[in-house]
Amino acid sequence: MKTLGLDIGSSSVKAAVLDTETGACVASFTSPATELPIDAPQPGWAEQAPQMWWEHVSVCLQEIFQSGKVQAAEIAAIGITYQMHGMVALDAEGQPLRNSIIWCDSRAVSLGEQAFRQIGPEKCLSELLNSPGNFTVSKLAWVKENEPEIYARVDTVMLPGDYILYRLSGEKSTTQSGLSEQILWNFQQDGFADRVAEFYGIAREVIPQAGPNIGIQAYTTPAIERQFGIPAGTPIAYRAGDQPNNAFSLNVLEPGEVAATGGTSGVVYGVTDQRKADPQSRVNTFLHVNHGGEGPRYGVLLCINGTGILNAWMKRLAADHLNYDQINALCELVTAGSEGVTMLPFGNGAERMLCNRYTGAVMAGVDLNRHGKPHVFRATQEGIAFAFRYGMDILQGIGVDTRLIRAGRANLFLSPLFRETLATVADAKIELYNTDGALGAARGAALGAGIYRSREEAFDSLKKIEAVEPNPVIKPALEEAYLRWKSELDRHLTA
Q1: Which helix (H) or strand (E) is 443 found in, with range?
Q2: CA dihedral 35, 86, 402, 489 (to 10 degrees)
Q3: What pLDDT does residue 34 have?
Q4: Residue 188 has pLDDT above 90, yes or no
Q5: Closest by CA position to 130, among listed 196, 207, 206
Q6: 369 exposed, middle or buried (CB, 10 Å; 0-12, 13-18, 19+)?
Q7: What confidence category does residue 129 fall into, taking pLDDT thresholds of 50, 70 and 90?
Q8: Are the beta carbons of 390 and 346 closer than 8 angstroms?
């Protein structure tokens, strides 16, 4: 049997087809070839049109089924993963009322901080395990306050993955972990967080009903069969935000297991069975995809907005004619520590791990007579790794052990320099596996539809392909560079 995984990112959309018998990816396609545009009408804002995601889903499916590698009629189940925390507002006819306010948009920070103070830090941290911060419910509150004519027409509020399920099935729903990422889940009561909705004056009716992440959630329509050839009634059997899904993709489902990813943003995600809250909400706790199945399962998420996006920006700015392998080769011309060049990667919106501060991306320590592109490129990758280290120290402080990390061999983790730098500066072993988000969603669909009958069967084909250990030779230079990096960050945070 074959299952289909759809990965709705802010940089691109990817579809992958999994052969459930062999565990192999038999077809995949990513659209567009370059990055998806992000609209920024004002500084700190970030929006995308939900219809654009669907257009690229359509491109991916058409390319896959026209490739001859798989027939649409073979698809037995569908899974969806998506960029977390985005807000999609639909009218009564199911049409988007405005662009989605996506995960890295900062406009609702002050509303979330006000809610945190007025609801009360103790209640927020005990019931929500988070501040309402800059999450989906606060984005919706911003629309209510600033765009009342649009808010008056809102029939349903969805996450990006909920919207894709709606386009496939006509059904309006979300998941329990989806409610938690919107900050609409009460962890004490294991149910909807009425207190937050009532504080913001948001009607419960605009939030769709929530079900489990793994399991049949909806079925495709005859219109989808006419458009793509996927049989009407094909179950959509898995849905999860990109970071819980990345953990699921790596079989990170049990307490003590940790996953990481390095796409546009960088994430470290640890699973626990304890309700953990960072008093400053620098890292955030959500329901994991398997919560409730074998007991409580929570994901503690460190998200760094500005990581891979800085790497891509620097490439476009300074070396668009080079590929990443060639850039990595330039980096190797410079010793660890980048000979004093320091890069802060925080140029993609307010950073939660910096208490919602926005420093912007910063390059410091440049000597115009000594430094060139190799120094800047290496400092970029080192600066991203240092941001990971900074956040991992926060995770360690609340009891999440980050000394063993699993990651897919994709995005930033394709770079040998980045992998070695991160392993060394964070004193962590990094294990790389043969998977990605779209394949994880396809595997989740097979598990949710009962094609795989157990977790063991679902992950039998997941293989470790490489392990990276800390390098003691470069550790002293990296530690010195990290202290310099941290001093530069502290200077900007206190400015």
Answers
A1: helix 437-448
A2: 70
A3: 86
A4: yes
A5: 196
A6: exposed
A7: very high
A8: no
